[in-house]
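so my prof wants the structure for this chain in the tokens format not the other one, which i didnt know existed until like an hour ago. anyway here's the sequence
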Amino acid sequence: MATLDDLMARATADAGVLGVVLTGSHARGLTTEHSDVDVTVVVTSPSETWQRDRAPDVDLAVVTVEQFGDTSVL
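here's what i got, hopefully its the right format
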């Protein structure tokens, strides 16, 4: 994954993406110089297009809307 801007452009263009949720320290306003950006992409169904990715700058989790309601998977 390249950047958060790239992820957002990709998510906006994908009809299978229901939402993008900022989580972690950025969502709580507790960032430090070592913080990455934690993002959860909510999709209509699992696919090869969206997969978990832990890059140095962006940590991406992917869940269906059903999984999103179950916080034990995040």
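also thought this was worth mentioning. The two ends are 19 Å apart (CA to CA).
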